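Sample pair:
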Amino acid sequence: MPLLIDGGRVPTRWAERISSRPAESAGRFASRAQSINVALINNMPDAALEDTEMQFFELLDAAAGDVPVNVQLYSLPELPRTERGQQHLDKFYFNYDDLWKTRFDGVIITGTEPRQPALSAEPYWQTLTDTLDWAANNTISTVASCLAAHASVLHSDGIPRHRLEDKKFGVFDHKKPTEHQLTRNLAESVRIPHSRWNELREDPLASCGYTVLTKSAEAGVDLFVKKIGKSLFVHFQGHPEYGLRSLLKEYRRDIRRFLNQERDTYPSMPHGYFDTHSRKLLADFQQNALSQPREEILESFPEAAISDALQNTWQASAARLYKNWLQYIAEGKADAPAFATVSPVESGVSVTRDANARVKH
C-alpha cells in the first residue's frame, strides 16, 4: 500500500519516485477512519529539508505494508528559512494553525540544528512545547527524533541533555535490554545511525519512568518510551530514518565548515560507516585538507568512489521499528473510542497566533 501525502501536496522528488507505480484506487484512501493519519513535522534546516522528507516517506512506505498511511507535512514556523526553503513550505506544507484543528493518529517531530546553548532559549521553544502538549492529548503515539527527543524529556520531566566532547557520529550496534511491542521481531543486534553533540543518559530517564528499548555500549541510549497523556511517546536519539548517503553528506558538510573556519577542528570520521578502502581515501584527503585548508580542495573529495562502497546496514531494522509503530497505532485506533481534538488552549496551554500562525511571546 503506497504512502499517500495528504491534501495533494506531494513534494516533487517523491512524486517522481512513485510516478512509475501502478495507480492506486482513490477509494482505498477515501476514509481517514480506515487509514493511519500521521503529521510529519519536519524542522530540519533548508539544506536537509527535502532529504528528510524523502527519508521519512521511504521509511513509512516500506513499513506500511497493506496499511494505508496518510501524511500531512508541517514545520515549526519560527525556524529561519531561505527564500527557496520558504517557497517549498508554502507549496507543500500545511499552515501550522491547521495542526491544532486536525485529528491525527500519530505525529513525527524531527529535530533541527540547535543555535542556542539552552533549548528553552530557542525561538521556536514555545511552539514546540505547545506541540508536545497537543500531541499528548490528541494522538495514539508520538515520535520525537534527536533534538525533539531532548526537548520532550526536558519539557515533561526537566531532564537536561549533556554536551559531548566530540560529535556522536556514525552507525552503532545496539542491544535490546527488554522486550516491547515496538521492538518485536527486531534482531538482537540493531545498527542505527547517530549524529548529535548532546546526549540523554539512562539513569535520569529510568528514574522518571522512561523505558529504554535499545542502547549501545558506544553511543548510549537510543530508543526509549513513556506514556504521556493519551500518547505513547517514542524517543530516538539516533536516526533510523537516515538514507544510505546521509552521513556522507553530513561529513562533507562538516569538512566544508572546517575549511570555511566555521568550526575549529577537522571533523571525526563517522564510526562504523566506511569500509577500509574508503577510510584510506578519506584519511589521505584529510592530510591534504589540513595542509591547505581552503574550500576549493573539496573539488578533490572522493565522494563518487566512497558512495559506490556504502552499504545500508540499518534499513531492515528501521523498517521493522516503524512497522511496529504503525501496528501499535492501528491496534490503538481499533480499540479506543474516538476522542475530540483538544487545542493547546483547551488543554491549558496559552497560545496566541496571528494570521500566519506564528506564535507571539
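The domain at 4-243+312-335 is CATH 3.40.50.880 (Rossmann fold).
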